[in-house]
Structures are given as C-alpha cells and as structure tokens.
C-alpha cells in the first residue's frame, strides 16, 4: 500500500483496546493464535478461488517503554535498557560505543532467556536478568516467527517529538523575561505555511503541545530565533553554564552556537521523516544523526545519556531495514489514540473497550470526511456554489478544476496585465492551441482547486491561493514562483484556467545554511502567465522573509528585500 494511503485513518484497523492497568498478554492471545495459523498457511476463498494464504508479523512499533516490553528487555531506566543494543545507561551517548560488539542478537537473547529460566532461585534469576537487561520471562510474542530485535525498531515519531520537546523547554527556561517577550512577538507575526493550523503559545501552553505541534515549531524555530536572538535574551546563569559546557568564551559566538543546535535539530527532524532515500541521502541521515547527538550531548547536560538521543545510533539501521523510518512510525496511531483519549471521560467506564469500538465504528463510517477524500462516482454536492462554469483541462491527469471568490479587474495590479494577450497566446501554445485569440475577457479569482491523478485511481486534491509559492514545469527546469493572480479565459467556447506569477531568482548566497532568493524586479526574459496544468508543485517549499531585529515590523515585510527558502534538508552545519 502506498505511503499516502497508509496515512489515511480509513486504512488503520483497531483490533481492541488495553485499558490502563489491563493485561496486554490476555489481550494479545487471540491475535497470536490466529497469526500462528497464518504462519503455517490457511486456505481461503478469494474471489471464488481457493488460495493458500501465508502471513507473518512484519514489525512491532511502540514508544520506548512499551517497545521494550514487546521484546522482553527491561525498560530504559535499567542499566541496559535499550532493546537494540547492550549499552549501559551511563554511556548511552558515548562516542566509544562499538555497536557491532554490543548489539542485541536474537540467538544470543534466546540463550540468555534460557539461562534465566534455568536458574534455581528467584534471586539468581533476577541477578542474571539484571546483568543482561532482560525481563524474567520472554514476551508472549516470542511464540511467533520473528527476529525480536530487528522487527521491533525504535519509533522515530515518539523519539523525535520527545527530544525536541525537551530542547524547547530547555530553551524557554533559559530565556529571560525580555527574551520570552521577544520570542512571542516574532512568533505571532511569523509567516507559517498556510496549510498548518495555528500553534499554541509556546510560553504558556508548552505542556499541552501535541507531538505534531513540537515538530512543526521545530522546523520554524531557527528562523524565528534568527530574527531577534541576542545574549541579553538569556538568563545570565543559564548562558554562562552553556558557555562552560561548550568551551565558548565570546557571547556572540555562544548565541550562534545555540542557534546552530536548533538548525541541527531541525535538519535532523526533516531528514528522518523523508519518504524515500537515495544512497547519498542515507549517508546524510547518518551524518545528521551523529552531529545532532554530538552537539546536544556536549552542549546540554539534560541530553547526556538521554535514551531518545541514544536512539540516533540505531535509526540508520532501521531506515535501511525498512527503506524509510516512516514505514515504522506511529503518527496515525497517535492521532487515533488522542481521539479516544478524549472520548474516555465521556464513556460509562464499565466497558471502555466496547464504548470505544462503537465510537470507532462511527469514525470509520465518516472516514472520507476525516481524510479529505471524495468519491469521484458521485457529483460534488457543493458545485452550485462555484463562481464559474466548468473549466476545461488540457491535461488528462487534471480534472474537476474549480475557481472561487471572484476578484474585480480594477483590483488587479496593473503591472500584471502588461502583454497579457501576447503571453496568453504562448500559454495556449503550451498545450498545442496555435489559433488566434478573438475576444474573451479574463475573469479573476482568489482560489483554485483541482484533482491531480498521480497514478491510476490515485487522486490528490490540489489547492491554489494567491501568494502561494509554486514550481512551474517549464523547459528550463523547475523554478520557484509566487502566484500573483488566478484567472479564467474563454476560447472556442471552452474555459481555461491560468496563473500569473512573479519569479524567484537565486542569489548564490546562504543564510542559516539555506539558499537565498529574491523576487525578480524585471520580467523581460521570463514569461509570467501559465496554464494551471503546468503548476507541478504547490507549497512543497516554504519561503521565509529574510529580516532581522527591527527590519520588518510586526510581519509587514518589504518584498524587495531578500527571501530565503525554507528547505532544511540543505542546511549546512557551519554558520556565517
């Protein structure tokens, strides 16, 4: 199943619920019995054909404590509490770990469990279990065919969210009242991606942050801090401690180093959630995980020997075993968990599992609403509210083009309409229409949407707004541009949708390691009008205005100043 489909709630099936204090072993026994039958093969009737179906467990993913339980390893507070290796708790982030030597292997764990079970007294059993970092009894899942350590990978979602939340709290606690005030001022006016929901106040509501809130703020915090951060924004005691930990003596360099830590965390967060890797990108993942572990464990005492940071040793292995780290993360499961956690107080608490399953059945029935999906076999119920007639698509992969919120032409910047007839001719020529344009007045809109067919029967709903950053598919390559206008033009009794754009040009400079761009001021050599079918990437990157201190006031950015692209996969480790 494609990754995009696996993210949908409709493709996740709840087997049951284990209430707090309940027995996981009792819950999982029926599942194990069925899986053992499938491991040996079971004849099933599939579309009228008798087939032998053989299946086995793929992987088991859970947070740090529960994940250890699934493997039979003591929890991470124990001396050897990692389910992937035998590192001791006082050397979790040490550079001297030899992973090949200390890794946990299935056959060795079998021998160790056997040694524990053959001990004559309970005291002896506990001593041996403590030495190996194992629980007294092997987990019930051992009855299934699996490689317990390789098939129970660390969950990148919990690990990364826990790690960045800790760094957020360290940073906020180190800020002086003036620093917190400056942070909130910049945070309020910062230009977040339009598709993101509004984040809670990081000062007053940090304890109520969801994991997704932590991850989103992490991606933006380097740019937010860069706009105001100075040494006087820190408490003197925390800042001096940071300087002693890192061996830095100059205040300005210490501020840059703190910012560098956030850049490294943001870059690592971006790359661990990639949906595919090349061989070079696996190398980049290795470097990011190593540099983040080194930097945070050296600069902050609270990160030294932290289990979440120790997992950086193992994430590369998990990524290679499962192609990506997303294939074993539990982001969707956490969404379901949060839904039901909010439901529990409203149940009768007599049969929580039954009550929750009833709610889940209801959620499953409205899954298309939750996933934003549509059924193409049915007419669109809101089509009567569209502001334009049917719009024709020159590309068979694009359909259901909708234009809404009409804009009067007198409200359109006059500079956008220069040479509009000449450029319209070129836009029609892009899809093979070389006939002359006779009449036809453009109609302007604020919003456009369409369905794009990525693969057969795999549709994506794309939305375009004025000021969105897009990539245009032209012969010179993919280029970034900002939409200035969306309009519809009629030719030969057919309506076509177009966009007018301003181009970004690269400056061959970097800021925070990100490539810098500016909006072009002349348009003599590049077209500005294109069919909506040539817009091949919408909001895949995020441009952040390059301003610092009081250069721009309360988010009122001067578009003539430089911009830099928010693409943290290209952040370098050095700061200018």
User: What's the mean pLDDT score?
Assistant: 82
Number of domains: 3
Q: Strand content of the residues, in percent?
A: 15-25%
Number of helices: 18
**What is the approximate shape?**
globular
Helix amount? 25-40%
Largest sheet: 11 strands, antiparallel
Question: Termini, distance in Å?
Answer: 44 Å
Describe this structure in words.
By secondary structure, the protein is α+β, with helices and mostly antiparallel strands. The chain has helices at 3-6, 24-40, 64-71, 99-102, 106-118, 122-132, 156-174, 177-189, 211-226, 236-246, 251-272, 279-299, 307-310, 312-321, 331-343, 352-365, 367-371, 420-430; strands spanning 42-46, 49-53, 398-407, 443-455, 458-465, 469-474, 477-491, 494-511, 514-519, 529-531, 535-538, 542-545, 563-566. The strands form 2 sheets. Strands 3, 4, 5, 6, 7, 8, 9, 10, 11, 12 and 13 form an 11-stranded antiparallel sheet that branches. It contains 18 helices and 13 strands. Helix 9 packs antiparallel against helix 11. 38% of the residues lie in helices and 18% in strands. It folds into 3 domains: 3-154, no CATH class; 156-328, no CATH class; 383-540, Roll (SH3 type barrels), CATH 2.30.30. The protein starts with a helix and ends in a 10-residue tail after the last strand.
């Amino acid at each position: 199943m494609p990754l995009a489909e696996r993210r949908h709630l409709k493709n996740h099936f709840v087997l049951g619920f284990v209430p707090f204090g309940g027995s996981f072993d009792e819950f999982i026994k029926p599942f194990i019995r069925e899986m053992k039958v499938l491991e040996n093969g079971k004849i099933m009737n599939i579309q009228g054909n008798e087939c032998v179906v053989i299946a086995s467990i793929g992987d088991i993913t859970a947070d740090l404590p529960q994940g250890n339980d699934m493997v039979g390893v003591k929890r991470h507070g124990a001396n050897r509490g990692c389910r992937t290796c035998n590192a001791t708790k006082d050397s979790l982030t040490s550079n001297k770990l030899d992973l090949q030597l200390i890794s946990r292997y299935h056959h060795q764990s079998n021998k160790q469990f056997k040694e524990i079970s053959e001990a004559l007294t309970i005291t002896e059993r506990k001593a041996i279990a403590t030495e190996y970092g194992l629980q007294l009894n092997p987990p019930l899942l051992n009855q299934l065919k699996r490689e317990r350590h390789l098939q129970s990978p660390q969950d990148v979602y919990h690990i990364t969210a826990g790690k960045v939340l800790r760094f957020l709290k360290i940073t906020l606690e180190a800020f002086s009242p003036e620093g917190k005030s400056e942070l909130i001022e910049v945070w309020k006016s910062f230009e977040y991606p339009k598709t993101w929901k509004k984040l809670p106040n990081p000062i007053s509501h940090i304890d109520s942050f969801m994991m997704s809130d932590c991850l989103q703020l992490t991606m933006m915090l380097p740019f937010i801090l860069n706009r105001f951060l100075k040494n006087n924004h820190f408490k003197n005691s925390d800042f001096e401690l940071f300087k002693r930990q890192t061996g830095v003596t100059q205040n300005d360099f210490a501020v840059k180093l703190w910012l560098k830590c956030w850049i490294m965390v943001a870059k690592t967060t971006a790359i661990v959630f990639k949906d595919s890797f090349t061989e070079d990108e696996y190398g980049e993942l290795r470097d990011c995980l190593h540099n983040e572990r080194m930097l945070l464990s050296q600069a902050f005492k609270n990160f030294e020997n932290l289990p979440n940071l120790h997992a950086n040793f193992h994430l590369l292995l998990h990524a290679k075993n499962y192609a990506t780290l997303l294939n074993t993360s539990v982001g969707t499961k956490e969404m379901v968990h949060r839904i039901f956690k909010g439901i529990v107080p409203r149940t009768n608490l007599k049969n929580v599992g039954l009550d929750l399953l009833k709610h889940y059945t209801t959620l499953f029935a409205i899954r298309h609403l939750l996933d934003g999906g549509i059924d193409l076999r049915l007419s669109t119920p809101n089509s009567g509210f569209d502001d334009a007639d049917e719009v024709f698509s020159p590309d068979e992969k694009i359909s259901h083009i909708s234009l809404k919120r009409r804009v009067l032409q007198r409200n359109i910047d006059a500079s956008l309409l220069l040479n509009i007839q000449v450029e319209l001719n070129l836009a029609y020529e892009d899809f093979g229409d070389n006939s002359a344009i006779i009449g036809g007045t453009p109609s302007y809109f604020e919003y456009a949407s369409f369905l794009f067919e990525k693969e057969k029967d795999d549709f994506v709903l794309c939305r375009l707004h004025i000021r969105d950053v897009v990539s245009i598919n032209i012969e010179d390559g993919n280029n970034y541009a900002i939409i200035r206008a969306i309009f519809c033009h009629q030719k030969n009794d057919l309506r076509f949708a177009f966009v007018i754009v301003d181009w970004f040009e690269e400056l061959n400079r970097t800021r925070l390691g990100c490539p810098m761009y500016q909006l072009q001021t002349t348009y003599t050599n590049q077209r500005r009008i294109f069919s909506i079918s040539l817009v091949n990437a919408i909001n895949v990157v995020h441009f952040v205005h390059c301003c610092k201190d009081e250069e721009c006031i309360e988010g009122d950015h001067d578009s003539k100043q430089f911009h830099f692209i928010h693409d943290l996969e290209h952040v370098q480790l050095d700061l200018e």
